[in-house]
Design brief:
heterodimer; A: 386 residues; alpha+beta; Butyryl-Coa Dehydrogenase, subunit A, domain 1; Butyryl-CoA Dehydrogenase, subunit A, domain 2; Butyryl-CoA Dehydrogenase, subunit A, domain 3; 3 domains; 4-stranded antiparallel beta sheet; 11 helices; 53% helix; globular; B: 265 residues; alpha/beta; Rossmann fold; two-stranded antiparallel ribbon; 6 helices
């Protein structure tokens, strides 16, 4: 399939693929076991300028957009989506600064994020606010030139490893979600600590931690956008980043499918390679068809975002839903193709199956995504648009 | 510090096949790469630059498409690259190649350190490095696994031996051929790749580098390749299986039966 990549996009994809092959694949199983954060890979990605691809060129980026970020995430995820997540989650934390940061904030943070010197993270979820993101309880009380933050954020990717956190908190709790704001909190702001690292089913090389704020004082200059815009900033950020999750899922699916095809040619039963059996062939054909469809949808969503289209919620939700459901199905089938070997840790597909599951859950469960899609449809119909 | 790295574009031999009838390399569909040993030389050059300052210039002798290898070298951190290319160079053996490269180095104003890989993976001679040094009348040290220090016009290196290594000092300028133990080459960066895409790669012809035509290409190459062939696979062979005491005994009696005397120490 020709996706008409530019020379520069091909270059980005090839370099990411080389890093995946040479630096990620060899350590994927080890880090899955040890849950060690992939700082070495992060350094390699930084030196290769891959953190620059989606940052505007005024801030030492290479001026690409979500599509370029998606190309990187897809390639890295073919080898290990847990390791790839260190990159993707930093992207998620960087997007709100790109979208809503003022000149000073952009100058302060983007060059260092582009260079990969520091990582970013995005903090919305709380123990009582998952799909119901509007139910957040963390407060940021204005006090002179500062905000004083209190509360707990849960399951924050890159938590404890990132240096800069985009935190959604209530600056005016009485107004509920309309009183929420997004604030940039640095790792060493006093009163900001981390809970234990979560022990996860998949994406185990990524760091997931609780963020604890106890009278954490942050200067008011760290407010992103305006007070009361917190929920909007969060939703717009997630609209942009969802194709990133989709490409992570896409990479997992492609990686698993590649392994299944390779194995089916090597594995002999009844005196023939199992790839000669129609039962296996049909599975491979279905995998490939779904993966390609997921890729087409993901790329289209990312490119729509980069084109500056205003309403991207639906497109980006569709890409996330379809690609993550595809990843779950394809990895499950890949384990099936590898049979007993597929179930063993010596082969990489059982890990891919564990890794795939989270893509249906995080950055908005697939059920919430379907609601977003359906509500968009209904709204449009009410307005009488076609 | 002025650093020149000499590289060679070679077919990726991990994918190379030999045509059994003509005994020649099947070149169709085989990718060209920078000779792997030369990638270590480029990396070492870039590290020297990062440590001591200066410039890294990469040169290669080859057909126009060898410019691709030079672009890759720029993406790996080299500052400039020159393609030494002329019909007159065609058919050069190691003697003529070393002469041409030496002329190019002289044309570029020489260097403090000239680096190359210990050998190219297609020809495997390892002669060009020392050959360039002889032509330039400077020292050369082969099989370098570490550059210890460079100071006051003097260099100290470790030369890999079959067992252990030798520590050698030499006066600059010097030619070093490197082994893969010397470093871990970095991956290219996007900025490097973008620079490589835009980089101008001047072509140096025989006349530009002041080379004598009779010492170039086929004319300057005393080596004549009579025949290239794939060595026959060693046939037969016998495998003894079982526990060592039995297999050793069986092997000994087989050897004795074949008339081979075994002396005990």
């Amino acid at each position: 399939m020709n996706y008409f990549l530019t020379e520069d996009q091909k270059m980005i994809k090839d370099l990411a693929a080389q890093i995946a092959r040479e630096k990620i694949a060899p350590i994927a199983a080890e880090l899955d076991e040890s849950q060690e954060f992939p700082w070495e890979v992060v350094k390699t990605l930084a030196k290769s300028d891959l953190f620059r691809v989606f940052v505007p060129s005024e801030y030492e980026g290479l001026g690409g957009g979500m599509f370029e970020m998606c190309l990187v995430v897809e390639e890295l995820s073919k080898a290990c989506s847990g390791i790839a997540l260190a990159y993707a989650a930093s992207g998620l934390g960087t997007i709100p600064i790109i979208l809503y940061g003022n000149e000073e904030q952009k100058k302060k943070y983007l060059p260092r994020l582009a260079a990969g010197e520091i990582l970013a993270a995005f903090a919305l979820t709380e123990p009582g606010a998952g799909s119901d993101a509007a139910g957040i309880k963390t407060t940021a009380k204005p006090d002179g030139d500062s905000y004083v933050i209190n509360g707990t954020k849960q399951w924050i990717t890159n938590g404890g490893e990132a240096s800069i956190y985009t935190v959604v908190a209530l600056t005016d709790p009485e107004r509920g979600v309309r009183g929420s704001s997004t604030i940039l909190v640095e790792k060493d702001h006093p009163g900001f600590t981390f809970g234990k690292k979560e022990n996860k089913m998949g994406i185990r090389a990524s760091a997931t931690r609780e963020l604890v704020f106890q009278d954490c004082r942050v200067p008011k200059t760290n407010l992103l956008g305006k007070e009361g815009m917190g929920f909007l900033v969060a939703m717009k950020t997630l609209d942009q980043s969802r194709p990133g999750v989709a490409s992570q899922a896409l990479g997992i699916a492609q990686g698993a499918m590649d392994k299944a095809i390779e194995y089916s040619r090597e594995r002999h039963q009844f005196g023939k390679p199992i790839s000669s059996f129609q039962g296996i062939q049909f599975m491979l054909a279905d995998m490939a068809t779904q993966v390609e469809a997921a890729r087409a949808l993901t790329y289209a969503a990312a490119r729509s975002i980069d084109s500056g289209e205003k309403d991207v919620s639906r497109m980006s939700a569709m890409a996330k839903v379809f690609a993550s459901d595809t990843a779950m199905r394809v990895t499950t089938d890949a384990v099936q193709v590898l049979g007993g070997y597929g179930y063993m840790k010596e082969y990489p597909v059982e890990k891919m199956m564990r890794d795939a599951k989270i893509t249906q859950i995080y950055e908005g469960t697939n059920q919430i995504q379907r609601e977003v899609i359906a509500l968009g449809l209904i709204k449009e119909s009410v307005r009488g648009k076609k | 510090m002025k650093i020149i790295v000499c590289i060679k574009q070679v077919p990726d031999t991990t994918n190379v096949r030999i045509n059994p009838e003509t005994n020649t390399l099947v070149r169709e569909g085989v990718q060209s790469i920078i000779n792997p040993f030369d990638v270590y030389a480029i990396e070492e050059g870039v590290r020297l630059k990062e440590k001591h300052g200066g410039t890294v210039t990469v040169i290669t002798m080859g057909p126009p498409q060898a410019a691709e290898a030079l672009r890759e070298a720029i993406s790996l951190g080299a500052d400039a690259a020159y393609l030494v290319s002329d019909r007159a160079f065609a058919g050069a053996d190691t003697l003529a190649t070393a002469y041409a490269l030496a002329c190019a180095v002289r044309h570029l104003g020489g260097a403090d350190v000239i680096l190359m890989g210990r050998q190219a993976i297609d020809g495997d001679t390892g002669q060009v490095g020392p050959g360039v040094a002889e032509n330039l009348d400077i020292s050369h040290i082969t099989d370098i696994r570490k550059i210890e220090e460079i100071a006051d016009g003097r260099i100290v290196v470790e030369r890999l031996l079959e067992e252990g290594y030798a520590r050698i000092a030499a006066r600059l300028p010097v030619i070093l051929t490197v082994v893969k133990e010397i470093n871990t080459p970095r991956l290219p960066s996007l900025k490097g790749k973008l620079a490589a895409k835009k980089a101008e790669i001047p072509v140096l012809k025989a006349a530009d580098i002041g080379a004598e035509v009779e010492r170039l290409g086929l004319n300057g190459s005393p080596t004549q390749v009579m025949k290239i062939f794939t060595p026959p696979k060693p046939g037969g062979g016998k495998k003894f299986t079982g526990e060592p005491p039995q297999t050793v005994g069986a092997l000994l009696s087989e050897l004795t039966a074949a008339g081979i005397t075994i002396r005990k120490r």
